[in-house]
Amino acid sequence: MKSLLALFCLASVVQAQLPNTQPLAPNADFSATMVAGIDKFVLDLTAKAKAARAALWPGDAATHREHLKTIIGAIDKRLPITALELVGDTDTPALLAETDKARISRVRWPVFDGVLGEGILIQPKGKVLARVIYLPDCNTDPEKLANDAMLAYSGCEIIIPALVSRGSEFSTNDRFGVKTNVPHREWIYRQSFELGRHIIGYEVQKVLQLVDWTRTQKDQVPLLVAGLGEGGMIALYAGALDTRISSVYVWGYFAAREALWSEPIYRNLFGLLNEFGDAEIASLVAPRHLVVQHLGYPNVQGPPAATQGQRAIAAPGKIVKPSLDEMKAEVARAQQIVPGDWIKLYGEDGGLKEVVGHLLPEVAEQIVTAINPIMPQKNEQRAAIDTTRQERQVRELEKFTQRQLVDTEAERNATFWKPLPLSSIADFEKRTASERERFWNGTIGRLPNPNVPMNAKSRLVKETDKVTIYEVTLDVWQDVFAWGWLALPKDLKPGEKRPIVVCQHGLEGIPEDVFNADPESKAFKPYQAFALRLAEQGFVTFAPHNPYRGMDAFRTLQRKLNPLGKTLFSVIIGQHQRILEWLKTQPFTDSKRIAFYGLSYGGKSAMRIPAILTDYCLSICSGDFNEWVRKCVSTDMPMSYIHTHEYEIWEWNMGRTFNYAEMAALIAPRPFMVERGHNDGVGTDEWVNYEYAKVRRLYNKLLIGDRTTIEHFDGPHMIHGVGTYEFVKQWTK
Known about the structure:
Blueprint: H1 2-13, E1 22-23, H2 30-52, H3 61-72, E2 85-86, E3 95-98, E4 102-112, E5 115-124, E6 131-135, H4 142-146, H5 149-152, E7 157-161, E8 172-173, E9 178-179, H6 184-192, H7 199-214, E10 223-228, H8 230-241, E11 247-251, H9 278-283, E12 289-293, H10 324-337, E13 343-346, H11 352-359, H12 364-371, H13 389-417, H14 425-444, E14 457-463, E15 467-477, E16 480-489, E17 498-504, H15 524-527, H16 530-536, E18 540-544, H17 552-561, H18 568-584, E19 589-599, H19 601-612, E20 618-622, H20 628-633, H21 660-667, E21 672-677, H22 685-701, E22 708-713, H23 723-732
Parallel strand pairs: 1-14, 6-7, 6-10, 10-11, 11-12, 12-13, 17-18, 17-19, 19-20, 20-21, 21-22
Antiparallel strand pairs: 2-4, 3-4, 4-5, 5-7, 8-9, 14-15, 15-16, 16-18
Helix pairs in contact: 2-17, 6-13, 7-8, 11-12, 18-19, 19-21, 21-22
């Protein structure tokens, strides 16, 4: 009988495919096929989001405005303002130029602690007909606009703010000798996005502070906010948010936003397209007047080219001028939301009289009469450009953001840790269940559960004297599948159930890498064939492919998902839902003992996936555990992502909600372990230990301190496979 069972077991191990699966055809690059399928899936989600927005509008405008403030990161309280400060000294007086009609001065105004708005003020010498906040494209100095005689003779009081530019000369860290080609706008974006803030929100706040100032003036004349290019975007958002603005004029910016992912990354807004396109934002201006003009789009074909000594790490992204028909369609959508003639579209030949007549009907005739005679002229006195202002603008926002980084820990303590009950595991798990939902829905971004038949396919790919390895694919959603390698020990008996270890590769890896036992191979050094070694010790192992492979190909997925309020892990978690579903149906699986163990980006996965999917019985984070928020935001850490090419890495508002200790709390009370090499450059022992101390305290407070540990070893970024192997054995028994 024993010999017959042995023959049966051997026959089952070496069969060409697994039972209850269809044959799997070989694929030269399953990874590329997967990324392409996800791309198609996400583009379909984007189209559906546009259609679904119709059900939300018009809705309650005040609620929409509050949502928009949060999306653009305009969340910080502004300082009080009563006056604009004239800026000058004995060498460079505040008064830049003067005509018989107006004075042109350099000004600044407080916004946040340590953050000032700066720009040019044109003050008419006669009666003020209207006030205008005139936002140039971010690469245009305010003085260039101030030299236009039309503005000085208009009879309007005009403030021309400076915006953070697309240059890169100040995207540097002198402490570490880092110079980059990252545009200044992206430099601030990189630091602020993780903290629920944004370069767009910062600059909208600077404009709204000017609106506050106009309300302190005795003569309450009409207020127009106008902008070109990036300034047009800021003008549109400001006009949508603040009803004190009388009218809005936008040119060089207005289009459908479904291709937001292809624009410069400093325009990336998490969750925008679920509620807003430009039409919806424009509708918040109604019934006030809005003019959009098909004119003046900046020519941006990508980030600045890296010069000698600069790191070429900037994200790709272009600004493409839409067709006039595309603009007409977006305007038509706005008028469907709010019918009426409040919005006007002009082509390149739109006349001054018509535009001003729509925007400022009360004073249009006086303005046009004053301007017409001097339209071709320039001011005789030219305002000298302030060459030091741009660096101040960048450094002020950088310092402000770095201070917010420090404050986020107190914010997490107040919102996550203080309400956490530690008197019983039952109460703790009840609380963390709701926190898990908050993490999944708000931070990671939740997609529907897998909703197509599993359609499991497999094929034999490799065999050793101890292990048989199969390649497996499982359908998840339309166009999206999961793929991985499954290793079955050859001593597995029919009907026997074993614990499974899901072994997750890192960035640019594939499932084969974690089985590669060739000491000369590139994959062996970091992974040490840990999926194979664990299988040789008797575990069933499964190595899924997570689609963070293909450089810009997968990073573009993150860009496409973010405007939908989703991330790459939204997709990955769906794939792991399907993987767990399939594994639990297999005859060799002990469904209560499915562990997770990942290195590097796989360690990043080990923090996020088991924090959400509780069917993983334990998690081991190798080569990744960190004071994660600090690594993403800080300019004081040499290994910070601010200084690297991983432009997809930031997760919206995570710093204010969930760091790695909080994710570990969502894994608790299940066993959790950190594997840390002293020489691993992804972090420093000090910061890793600082964050892990919170995890240790939590488990001790819950009286389950034996369920967590950290192993330090004297080595680099790699699987050590000593304490971790024992940890898996201990907690899967």
